[in-house]
Every structure is written in structure tokens, then in C-alpha cells.
Amino acid sequence: MTSITNKLLAHRIVRFGLTGGLASLTHLCVAFALLHFFATNVFTANLIGFICAFGLSYLMQSLFVFKTALSRNNAMRFFVVQFSALLISQLISELLQDTNNYLRVLLVVFMIPLVTYFIHHFWTYKKRPSID
Prior knowledge:
mainly alpha
């Protein structure tokens, strides 16, 4: 079992998926809790969910997925990509405002990873020193 796990974790896309899954779970739990317990609107729930998931995601994407040293420049690029993806997802969510709020949050959470992997690969973490 360990050799299979090691072989899977050798692939960046698998590490990205695991990290993204954990960040998405964080986003979902926070957003759903805000919707359920505090009756916040979808925008506020997604924004706070995004903020909570951002720090975890940046650390894990940098160190575990792309194996890159942490830096202010990298953090800013990461933020630009993630925040832009959030805004685009929120726009799409607002266009679907007549649908279920929980479905809209799910849509936002699962759209972000699809776009961000490639942007991070080709821009955020391009030509950064490796920590391996």
C-alpha cells in the first residue's frame, strides 16, 4: 500500500488534487456553516470560506505540490490567481441566483481548482527555486 501511495504522490497533479480537496473542504465547511448557522448571503459565505482556505492552500501548494520556497512575490501571485478565480466563480454563481444556495457554493468551490492548476503551473510557480 505504501508503494502505491508513494507512486501516486510522485505526481504533482495528485498532490494538487489532495491539497485542493482539503482547501475545498475547508471552504465548504466554513461557507455551509455560515449559511446554516448565521444565514449569511452566498457572497459573504464564499468570501469567508475563501479566506479560511487561502492560507492553508498557499502553504500546501507551495511546499507540497510545487515544492517551492515561500516568498512574498509568490504569495502575491498566488493571491491574484485565487482571488481572480473566486471573482469569476462568484460572477457565475450570481448569474445562477435563482438556484439553490448550497448548489451555488458547490459550483464555486469546484470551479476554482479547474482553472487555477494551470495558471499556478505556468505563472505562479514558474522558475522558482526548488526546496527538494
